[in-house]
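Pipeline run #58 for the internal structure catalog. This entry was flagged by the ingest filter as a single-chain record with no existing model, so it goes straight to prediction. Upstream metadata was stripped on purpose; only the residue string is passed forward. Reviewer on rotation: M.T. Logging verbosity set to normal.
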Amino acid sequence: MFLNDLRFAFRQLHKNPGYALAVVLTLALGIGVNTAVFSMVDGFMLRRLPYPEPERIAALVVHTQGVSQRSGKLFTEDDNSFTGASWQLLKDNVSGLTFASYGLTSGVNLKADANAGGAVRYVHNIRVSAHYFDVLGIPLYLGRSFSEQEDIPHGPPIVVISYALWQSTFHSDPKLIGKSIELKGEPYTVVGILPRNALTPSNADLFTPLQPATTGECGGNNCGIMVRLKPGANWQQVNAQISHVRLPFFSDIETRNHGSAWIYARPMQRELAGEMHDEVSVLMLAVSFILLIACANLAGLALVRISRRTPEVATRLALGATRFDVLRQLWIENLVLALTGAAAGLFLAMLILNGLRGFLPEWMIPIGGFHLDARVLAFTFGASLITSLLFGALPALQTRRVDLRSSIAAGSQAVVGGTGRTRQWLIGAEVALTVILLAAAGLLIRTLVQLESLPPGFDPTNVMTAKVSLDDARYHNAATFQSLLQKSVAAMRKIPGVQDAAVGLSVPYERGLNWPIAIKDGKLAGTNDGSSLAYVTPDYFATLRIPILAGRVFTDSDTATSQQVAVVNATFAKQFYGEASPIGRHFTLGIENLSDDKVFTIVGVVSEVAKKPGMSGDAPISHEPVFYLTATQIPQGVANGAHTWFQPSWIVRTRGPIQGQTESMQRALAEADPDLPFSGFYSMQQILDEQLQMQRMQVLLLTVLGSLALVLSAIGIYSLVSNLVVQRTREIGIRIALGSTIEEAMLHVGSSGLFAAGGGLVAGIALSFVLLRALASQVYGVKTYDPITFVAVLLVLAVIAVVASFLPTLRISRIQPADTLRAE
């Protein structure tokens, strides 16, 4: 029986190739985008991490909540960074876990094997503690990992390298274990090599000991902690132990912020997903709307088709078929179309994922990448079954209205009643979902425009920057560090076409180095707070053309032996001194081992520049308090610490386009140090684009989805009215013959599409006020219920609805009333 129904289904679809093609293409689009996005969801949230027993791995997180001292608003946040003191406290008080700590991935200089020419290359390094690979469950291919005796302050310089680096730089030398290589300007002994295709959260080229302590890198909240359950332990026991650990700053939160804090273990799967967890969840919701819109359109097409097949259904019933037999036949036809559409959707999903691999930055791709694995294929198959049910349900129910006697009597003129009103409801639902998608895309577009239009505070034209890793033992000495800056900047000024040159720890749009300071005078004297620190050479402000608002900036006379001076931006001045002038005021760096005479006098105020915030705020670009120190007066300990996480930028301003300057800049740097490579060259626009990658991706994807929904809704409205024109041709002809004008007939028929769209607009606006709350954390500088966005969406949809409603009514002008009356 099933095979007979299947053969009949293929015959029916072969007789209606236009209908079959429309359904398959629509389903391919809906299922394809859903499959591609589900592959992202699978990679970030569902697929098991590529480690043994990944459910036993977690990251420790501090959850805090209270009232913000600055804004007075309630806040809640999770922070996965710890100090060395916190790390030690947790290790001493929680017995059921194997602990590992890790720092930030940074770039370092590695001198290649002599057989490879001995050139210095830039590689990615992460500092990790003992047991890092034990927690992940990664056995080393050769050698060993770090021991606890080595992972201590001033421990031996040792390194574990990746398999790819071992192959490319050291030619798979099996005798490399125990040998010394030059890393960061000093010898490191290779103790281990990772296996081929080993995946680590950092995706680094090499791993060095973190050596966590209460000073240095782990003196601040710069270290993450991941853990693995020991054999016999369970998360309930461990969380009970963790909940009793109180870190030193917990009491400050309770007193200053009237809040609370505690530590919990977050599953590693959720930790690695990071902010992409929320992003792909919103995206999955958006593409599910596309599938629902597609199903609504297909249900409308199927309603029209079943109305035209009323005589066939009536004949089958008259010949003895049961209504169940008819329903089964219709379901099988829909299933054939759905499976065909799913197969085409899989091909489309592969194209989309290949495009995303080239479009998305590495940090937006899950460990192991995107794959159409068994879970994704099962999702696609399930989606095809569900869509066959969704777009076949209403037409199947309409067959219950077939009256056998009247349908046979009417012959080819018989139709199922009520399909027009049902289709109006479907169109209304399509439009409502389209409103939500377009409003979401509009809010993100408005956010991106707002961020891009933020005053930069400097002149970005004809500016080229290049980064260098100074996490190098050769530049831990003040004399060699200062010599490098002076010689390289002088050489770059001599490059033909270069107008100005300078060096800065960070440049506009980038995140600065968070550093605590103590205010010495003014209303906020005694305040200890954090600001963004940048050391710069004297021509930094001139090179970037940052306006000077008060006082002066640095000069060559500001040396290591002269008065310690600082320049602050307008945000810093307002935050710490209000309306009073900050010129002549003083502050100190809140850092251990600095003598009391390291007091800096503010000599100038400059305009704020747009930066990625490092202290507070969720916006990717904003203004924050920044203080600048001249490179000649930066304490060398501060510089060395900064170079652990930050690569300073060499900046040149040219008189013309910046193209072709990269080789000249590298040659100029080589005059100061031939073994110091630039890690990358960037225009200011490229730096801004990098900071706004997430926002651009959101805008692109949601705009594409919103546009797709708009097209599907327009097709739905058009097909509704077009079918009404065909079905009511006789009625329209009689109306015109009885005195109705063509314009009145067009308005009468076209109003069906307008009413459906109008109801959808109202429902869509109402739903948007509920569902768009999911975007609250991703909208900056724009209200979630932005009136400009909603008005624009309503106008666009209104225009599309009018065009789609009245375009098919143009055929009414070709109706001849005389022919209609003769037919009657």
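catalog note: The CA atoms of residues 24 and 341 lie 4 Å apart.
catalog note: The longest strand covers residues 57-67.
status: ready for reviewer M.T.
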